[in-house]
Design brief:
Helix content: over 70%
Oligomer: single chain
Number of strands: 0
Strand content: under 5%
Structural class: mainly alpha
Largest sheet: none
Distance between the termini: 59 Å
Number of helices: 1
Radius of gyration: 20 Å
Length: 51
């Protein structure tokens, strides 16, 4: 029984670690986009219109 509880706790901890890593990666990509926009402030994003 103790082994099952330990494995469950490890899986939950691993899930939280993965979630945090994904959030950090998303935050870094947003910061990179902001840096690129600061370099070229007059450029508008490209929008494709499909009908």
């Amino acid at each position: 029984m103790k082994i099952i509880v330990l494995l469950l706790a490890l899986l939950i901890a691993f899930g939280f670690a993965v979630k945090q890593a994904v959030e950090n990666i998303e935050e870094m990509t947003i910061q990179q986009e902001i840096k690129q926009l600061n370099k070229y402030p007059n450029l508008l994003p490209v929008v494709e219109v499909t009908v």
